[in-house]
Structure formats: structure tokens, C-alpha cells
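Key result, reporting period 2: structure in, sequence out.
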């Protein structure tokens, strides 16, 4: 299962890459503008930080297929690394995804709200689809269930397209899509950090250390090597 950071914040990306088994970084226009930095230099910096092993997802902005294709080619030529182009699943977006598949540019169908949008994007040749879990919930839908249905549909019909669930506001949503078969999740840094947070874990770690120090007067097994009971 893929674990992807949904952010363009260089410091947060560096920190998460350092600590967690991260597979890539997703961005979108709103995420990029939050950073108030020049677009392509920022993408190049992110690409350098994450290296060629991880994927960097960059979104197009235009509405017509021919313009989307131009943007996709430009992004691929300008940003180094393992870049996947994110394209919204509109009619024009699907047309662009079909052409990009033919010329070997990998795409992710984004802004997905329904299983049929995901189906069309996968059939057009998208390597990924990104259902927007929390945004679906905010429209009184059931984001987790949409992810489950998309996963079932793509697997049942053997599409070579991964479900990268996106748009999370809480850990429970992530937990549920993981159990329901998503191939990956992309989440904001604070959500990812929350995966490991548990007061019981912290208390256990502290009490192991306390027990050890009481017995050996040391804080590390390395130093304990020199202590005789
Ligand atoms: O990757 C999609 C995502 O950025 C949308 O998330 O949190 O703005 O709903 P959000």
C-alpha cells in the first residue's frame, strides 16, 4: 500500500521522508499556492528531496484536452524525477489521459467523486485514480464506500490502475479506506504523523525506560553492556 504526502511544504516533506516509509508526494494548485513560492523551482526542489525512487504528482490547470496535453508534456520536460501528471476527470481530461497514455506519459485521474468517473479514467489509461474521501463526505456522500466500490470495480475488471485515496480530515477515514482495499493513501503531514500517535504507546515506552534505569542505572542497552548486576 502506498503512503504519499499531500503537501508542497519542503520542510514537512523533508521531515516525513526522514522518518516514514514514504512513496511519493502529491500536489495540486491549491496546495502549491499556499507555499507562496515560484512553481517550477519548488517542484524541482521537491523532486530533488524525494529522489527518483519516489513519485511526484503534479496537476494540470487548463480545461481543454489539447492544453492539458501541452501542460502535461511541459511538466514532464521541466520537472526531473519520477513524475505522474494529475488530470481532473472531466470529458476533456479523459481525452487528454487517452492521448498521454499513447505517448507514454503516466497520469492520475483526480477530483474523483464516483466509481464511474474512476472506471472511465482507468479505461482511458490512467495509472492512478484519486477519490476525494472527505470532500465526498462533505457532500453527504460516503467517501470510504466510494473508495471501496472503485477498488472492487477496478479489480473485478482487471484494470491496471491503482486507487490512491485522497482528501482526508481524520485518521478514521484513512483507517477505513486501508481496510477497504485502497492501493494507497495520500494525506497531509499532520494526518500522517497522527498514524503513530497513541498515548498508551508513549506510556509503555517511558515505563520500559524507567524499569531499565532503576535496574541498571543506564538509559541505553549499549551502555548497559558495561554494567554488572
Ligand atoms: O490530493 C487531493 C487533495 O489535495 C484534496 O484534499 O484536503 O483539500 O480535500 P483536501
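The corresponding designed sequence is given below.
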Amino acid at each position: 500500500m502506498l503512503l504519499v504526502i499531500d503537501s508542497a511544504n519542503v520542510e514537512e516533506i523533508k521531515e516525513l521522508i526522514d522518518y516514514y516509509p514514504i512513496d511519493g508526494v502529491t500536489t495540486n494548485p491549491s496546495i502549491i499556492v499556499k507555499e507562496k513560492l515560484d512553481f517550477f523551482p519548488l517542484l524541482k526542489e521537491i523532486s530533488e528531496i524525494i529522489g527518483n525512487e519516489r513519485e511526484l504528482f503534479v496537476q494540470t490547470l487548463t480545461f481543454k484536452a489539447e492544453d492539458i496535453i501541452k501542460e502535461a508534456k511541459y511538466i514532464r520536460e521541466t520537472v526531473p524525477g519520477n513524475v505522474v501528471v494529475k488530470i481532473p476527470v472531466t470529458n476533456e481530461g479523459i481525452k487528454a489521459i487517452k492521448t498521454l497514455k499513447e505517448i507514454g506519459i503516466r497520469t492520475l485521474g483526480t477530483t474523483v467523486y464516483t466509481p464511474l468517473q474512476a472506471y472511465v479514467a482507468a479505461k482511458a489509461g490512467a495509472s492512478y485514480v484519486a477519490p476525494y474521501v472527505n470532500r465526498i463526505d462533505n457532500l453527504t456522500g460516503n467517501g470510504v464506500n466510494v473508495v471501496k466500490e472503485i477498488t472492487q470495480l477496478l479489480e473485478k475488471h482487471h484494470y491496471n490502475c491503482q486507487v490512491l485515496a485522497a482528501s482526508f480530515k481524520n485518521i478514521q477515514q484513512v483507517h477505513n479506506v486501508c481496510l477497504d482495499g485502497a492501493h494507497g493513501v495520500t494525506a497531509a503531514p499532520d494526518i500522517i504523523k497522527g498514524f503513530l500517535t497513541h498515548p498508551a504507546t508513549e506510556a509503555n515506552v517511558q515505563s520500559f525506560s524507567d524499569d531499565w534505569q532503576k535496574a541498571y542505572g543506564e538509559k541505553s542497552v549499549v551502555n548497559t553492556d558495561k554494567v554488572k548486576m
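The CA atoms of residues 94 and 120 lie 8 Å apart. The beta strands are 2-6, 24-26, 55-59, 82-88, 107-112, 128-131, 162-165, 184-187. This case is discussed further under Risks and Mitigation.
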